[in-house]
Amino acid sequence: MHITHLKLKNFRNYKHVELSFSPQINVFWGNNGQGKTNLLEAIHVLSTGRSPRTHRLQDMILQGETYFYIEAHFTKNAISQSLKIYYDHTAKKVIYNETAYPHFSSLLGILPSVLLSPDDLVLINGSPAERRRFLDLHIAQIDPLYLFYLSRYYKAMKQRNELLRCQSHETLNAWEQVMAPAASYLMAKRKRATELLQESCSRWMKLFSQGEDLNLFYHFFLQGSKEEEFQSKLSAHWQNTRHKEMQYGTTTTGPHRDDISILHCGKEAKHFSSEGQKRSCIASLRFAQWEHMRKWIETPPLLAIDDFGIQLDAQRHKQLQEQIAHFGQVFLTSPHSIAPTTDHIPFQAFHVQQGQIDAE
């Protein structure tokens, strides 16, 4: 799977740009603030329907314009395909191979991708919500049912919380019956995904750190329970805690409160690891994510690395360069031009300056 052609209109600092890509290594280089990261953002929006930098779609519209448009032509399963998205402050449009969809959530799974960014340190230093968001987006790209159950759970929980605030028992049982199977599905998928990520994470960390350990643990309310028990145990727990939760006016247990522990050499990376060690942990986590997605979808997902080179020190950076040819199609940004490591790998460099892009 690889993108052959990308068109942007009124996206960030790009009025109109069209690019053709190498099926393997693509480098966007230039000074900071020129628009390199905006190109990776556009690819991420195509993959996930959301930006890694803002929750506001209007932030991606070129100043003074009323809409943005992104179009990609790509090859997947040896078939040429197209994907177009449009947003104009009110309407969202997705057109996949000439079929229209009304929501950006429809993009999930069409062009699976992984983005490694300097902002990823929030996965270690940030709140549990950041780590849940990472898991949710990762799984949603490879499991079509996951987003359905995620939406179903949060909608039902919103209704349950409203009843708790109103001190009403009237339909609590009905909403809990909706929440329980959805929550069970979410927790089982998150648990399994964490276990699979752990296997690859440990291997990548040893490569980048000369043998240091990296471990992931999924923490959830039913720790130690069998998956087939999740639904019944959650239902029983919510029934038993209704009176107490009415005092808080909210649901206090469930997948909306879960977390992942990231342990470096047996200790919480958040509190004990240096900035360089944290970056190695994050790089290992993202490459593990890429490997897990590749196995699940049976084709290499896209890989994007923002500010290639600052994630790791010189030695680890060299090790990554040696591995990068095995990742399928890769998009890199760098303040400096990057030379291909071998003549045998298809390579394309683009110089980015003030929203203008020159292929080299």
Question: Could you describe the 3D structure shown?
Answer:
The protein has 360 residues and is an alpha/beta fold. It folds into 2 domains: 1-112 and 301-360, 3-Layer(aba) Sandwich (Rossmann fold), CATH 3.40.50; 123-291, Up-down Bundle (Glutathione S-transferase Yfyf (Class Pi), Chain A, domain 2). Helices cover 40% and strands 24% of the residues. It contains 10 helices and 15 strands. The chain has helices spanning 36-48, 122-125, 128-140, 144-165, 172-209, 230-240, 242-248, 269-272, 275-297, 314-323, and strands spanning 2-11, 14-20, 25-29, 68-76, 79-87, 92-96, 99-101, 113-116, 214-219, 259-264, 267-268, 302-305, 330-334, 347-353, 356-359. The strands form 3 sheets. It has a 6-stranded antiparallel beta sheet with strand order 2-1-4-5-6-7, covered by helices on one side. Strands 8-12-13-3-14-15 form a 6-stranded mixed beta sheet, sandwiched between helices. It has a 3-stranded antiparallel beta sheet with strand order 9-10-11. It is globular and about 65 Å long. The protein starts with a strand and ends with a strand.
Features:
Rossmann fold, 15 strands, 40% helix, Glutathione S-transferase Yfyf (Class Pi), Chain A, domain 2, alpha/beta, six-stranded antiparallel β-sheet, 10 helices, 360 residues, 2 domains, six-stranded mixed β-sheet, single chain
Taking pLDDT < 50 over at least 5 consecutive residues as the criterion, the unreliable ranges are none
CATH superfamily of the largest domain: P-loop containing nucleotide triphosphate hydrolases
CATH class of the largest domain: Alpha Beta
The CATH architecture assignment of the largest domain turns out to be 3-Layer(aba) Sandwich
The CATH topology annotation of the largest domain reads as: Rossmann fold
Helix content: 40-55%
Number of helices: 10
Form type: globular
User: How large is the share of residues in beta strands?
Assistant: 15-25%
Largest sheet: 6 strands, antiparallel
In N-to-C order, the SSE pattern is: EEEHEEEEEHHHHEHHEEHHEHEEE
N-to-C CA distance: 23 Å
